[in-house]
Amino acid sequence: MNIVRDTRFCVTNWSAIKREQWPNMVACAKHVGPTTWSWPKRVTPLSIKCLLNSAETYELPGRTVTVNNDSYLIINEGTEYSSYIDSVADVETATVFIAPTTVADVFASLRYPNHKQLDEEVPLPSVHFVERLYPRNDQLISILTAIHKRTNSSAEDIEIQQLLYALIEHLASVHDGVNGEIDALKFTKASTREEVYRRLYIARDYMLSDLSQKQNLEQIATLAGFAPHHFLRLFKEVFATTPHQYLLSMRLEKAKALLHHSKLSVNEICADTGFASLSSFSSLYKKKFQVSPLKDRKQGRAQKKVMPFEESLDK
User: Fold this and answer.
1) Which long-range contacts (CB under 8 A, 24 or more apart) does 208-213 make?
2) Domain ranges, residue 265
3) What pLDDT, in 10s, does the model give residues 86-125?
4) pLDDT by residue (tens digit) across 122-141?
5) Is the Cβ–Cβ distance between 29 and 8 less than 8 Å?
6) In the predicted model, is pLDDT for residue 311 greater than 80?
7) If you average pLDDT over residues 196-211, what whole number do you get?
8) Which of 167, 183, 199 is the last residue of a domain?
9) Exposed (0-12), middle (13-18) or buried (19+): which is 42, by Cβ within 10 Å?
10) What is the strand order of the sheet 95-98 is part of?
């Protein structure tokens, strides 16, 4: 496994490289201060888009998705996209591009028993993810933080290679989880289940990409290719809540994170999370979390979690 390190927000011309020669690349750059940056349309290997702070907006076919501090985006090999960053704060990226042969090798290793891999040549699987925003978890952030740290240091490639394999193993478990969610949908045809799931997450990602904006049911449904009532019914079936209640819950969760981790005032957080007034925001916040926003800020300034995964990598 060869590794290319990008620490300067470079734009790689993947089209100039033969697909079978595409490298594994870790793009872990940092820019201090206000940042405006854009990348043109391109096709790349499978990529995991994550920022350790700030946000980046991706223009995918027919839609726009914003990756922020609590999500990451998976883009499949062959999808054409562009992206941009417009931030008043420091920006740290942790994007990983995984060569097709590397993805296939890891998935084959996980899918076939050891004796089969030793006794015969196993076929390499074709791996396709649902292109959507995924919630971060401690393990993922541990791995990406470790990759970011080593990419910007004199660490040997073997350390980053080990981390990259750990990342792909994590993605394999995510892939299995999504397939389980798709199989659980109550539609006879597998193709229908996959398409409904894909479209609903297009809608959900649009809702999450800018929680400060006013949302319109018809606009969201149209974006996902549904009639409004059909969309409403399917959304309730899959997410066990209405689009409005889901949106409200996500706004409150973002507000809680901002209260704990930012220096924004309560008024600014209220506006940034799309609430019409401070009084309604405070009332809804207290109803959900049993504490007022101000009191929660005083009580709950979160401390950085210890990342045990990185420490255990070499054990």
Assistant:
1) 208/66, 208/71, 208/133, 208/250, 209/57, 209/64, 209/65, 209/66, 209/133, 210/66, 211/247, 211/250, 211/251, 211/254, 211/272, 211/273, 211/274, 212/271, 212/272, 212/273, 212/274, 213/274
2) 190-299
3) 988 889 999 999 999 999 989 888 886 676 666 677 677 7
4) 677 788 999 999 999 999 99
5) yes
6) no
7) 93
8) 183
9) middle
10) 3-6, 24-27, 95-98, 46-49, 71-75, 133-135
pLDDT tens-digit profile of 212-253? Answer: 888 899 999 999 999 999 999 999 999 999 999 999 999 999
| pTM for this prediction | 0.86
Confidence at residue 2, expressed as pLDDT on a 0 to 100 scale: 82
- Whether residue 312 is contained in a domain is answered as no
How far is CA 275 from each of CA 212, 219, 266, 299, rounded to the nearest angstrom? 8, 19, 11, 23
The CATH number of whichever domain residue 14 belongs to comes to 2.60.120.280
- Are 138 and 216 found together in one domain? no
Q: Which amino acid is at 143?
A: I
Residues contacting residue 148 through CB under 8 Å, at least 6 positions apart: 26, 28, 52, 92, 94
**CA 251, CA 285: separation in Å to the nearest integer?**
10
- Look up the CATH number of the domain holding residue 245: 1.10.10.60
Task: Count, in order, helices (H) and strands (E) of the chain.
Answer: 12, 12
The secondary structure of residue 51, as a DSSP letter, is B
Mean pLDDT in the chain?
89
Q: Quick check: is 313 in a domain? A: no
In a domain, residue 305? The reply is no
Q: Which of these three, 119, 148, 183, is where a domain ends?
A: 183
